[in-house]
Amino acid sequence: MQEKIKIINPGKEKTAIGLLSGTSVDGIDAVLVKIKNSGADTGIKVIDFETYKIPVKIKNKILINSNNSTAKIADICRLNVIIGKLFADAALNICIKNKVKPSSVDFIGSHGQTIHHLPDMTPYEGFKVKSTLQIGDPSIIANVTGITTVGDFRIADCASDGDGAPLVPFLDYILFRNKNVNRGLLNIGGIANITVLPKSCEKDEVFAFDTGPGNMLIDGLMRRLYNKPFDKDGRIALKGKIIKLLFDFLVQDKQYRQRPPKSTGREYYGTEFLNKISRLTRTARKEDVIRTVTEFTAFTISYNYKKFVYPKVKLDEIIVSGGGSYNPVIMNSLQSLLPKVKIVKMNSKGISAESKEAVLFAVLANENLCGNPASMRSVTGAKKDSILGKICLA
Ligand SMILES: Nc1ncnc2c1ncn2[C@@H]1O[C@H](COP(=O)(O)OP(=O)(O)O)[C@@H](O)[C@H]1O
Ligand SMILES: [Mg+2]
Q1: 9: helix, coil or strand?
Q2: pLDDT, tens digit (0-9, with 9 covering 90-100), for 144-194
Q3: What is the per-residue pLDDT across 202-215, written as a single tens digit (0 to 9) for each?
């Protein structure tokens, strides 16, 4: 066993795979990377990135079982194994595609699939905890692929009362801090989050938080109104107009106006929130509904910047990643709401807008195997830093 742990020599260049399915449940992202050193010295080379399909029936089960009123414990028990197997297949497929033998991969880092995230310290039977649950067990992945797998990165931070989210600021800090510019990194996935990297910042000067919905409201309403998973290239939103009544209602929402540190998820911007929108818009044109929630999404990001970032750090640029960066209505609206900030799409160091989060999980696995704490308590609100993730040897 000791021998297997010793494969991690920080200085040696390692081959690793990062795996992730985000809150959008739009597919399993897999990235094949070469990784060297650790911490602030980490060197990353992306070899390939691919998104693998999740069967529609499984996607629907994940959505149903992420909702407190429709979830069933037997389903979650099965999905934990099924998602583990789908993730393992994704890892093996990216190996085949690149003619890489699984036995030559040093490790996998897997986020799993979040099915619940409860960052509020609500009293519960005499206890007060923050909690989060990712399924797709890393021991399934390790056993199917034969590759050492590190997974379940969020929960360690909950041990010291952190939210376990967002995790991406660590990657942002090690790869994108800069001497000359105040840089923001915005990821628009199901939920949107921003990392703020002041010029020449130290790790504890980084701050980051979830701004509110990313694509989650747009996707939810596209499913309801058009039976489609998302608004490709913002084409529907482009045809619509803002419904003032709906926009004014959305703007009153308190969640996105909370002070950081904060994180959010499907628990808030899921079925019940969508029901409220549907009730208000029974007679509205469908494209107008999509336009309005798309504009609201951009608005929540700009609101959070103006209220919680600008007073501390005036950003020169915001680099955008995640699927929302492919929606021109979000991107154009953001640029006009924040005219002084250069808004650009992520494409640097071989990392694209879509591969960034998967790269994060390869990097976090590397940190774990090197014994480094990768949590950021300035971001998650935790009382101390933790080594994130669990190691499953193959
Ligand atoms: N071409 C596109 N046009 C508009 N939206 C897109 C496009 N590609 C992806 N998206 C949006 O991005 C989402 C996926 O983003 P992703 O970064 O994978 O989020 P997550 O981390 O939550 O899985 C999709 O559900 C969709 O809403
Ligand atoms: Mg995704």
Answers
A1: coil
A2: 999 999 999 999 999 999 999 999 999 999 999 999 999 999 999 999 999
A3: 999 999 999 999 99
**Which tokens sit at 80?**
């934990």
Nearest to 185 by CA among 381, 351, 321, 302: 321
Among 23, 134, 215, say which to mutate for ligand 1: greatest number of ligand atoms within 8 Å of CB: 215
Domain extents in the chain: 2-167+354-392, 169-351
Residue 283: partners with Cβ closer than 8 Å, 6 or more residues away: none
Burial 252-285 (b: 16+ CB within 10 A, else e): ebeebeeebbbbbbbbbbbbebbeebeebbeebe
**Distance from Cα 243 to the centre of ligand 2, integer Å:** 29
β-pairing, 183-188 with 191-197? antiparallel
Nearest to 360 by CA among 206, 167, 201, 195: 167
Q: Which CATH architecture has domain 169-351?
A: 2-Layer Sandwich (3.30)
pTM: 0.93
Cα 58 versus chain centre, distance: 20
Residue 6 pLDDT > 80: no
Ligand 1 pocket test, candidate residues 223, 235, 327, 357, most atoms within 8 A of CB: 327
Output the CA 355–ligand 2 centroid distance in Å: 9
Whether the CB-CB separation of 236 and 226 falls below 8 Å is answered with yes
Same fold yes or no, 2-167+354-392 and 169-351: yes
What whole-number distance in Å separates Cα of residue 49 and Cα of residue 105?
15
From the alpha carbon of 321, which atom of ligand 1 is closest? 17
Residue 256 has pLDDT above 60, yes or no: yes
Domain 2-167+354-392 of CATH type 3.20.20.70: no
Q: Which of 188, 166, 203, 211 is nearest to 381 (CA)?
A: 166
Amino acid letter, 104: S
Residue 117 is inside which H or E element, if any? Answer: strand 107-118
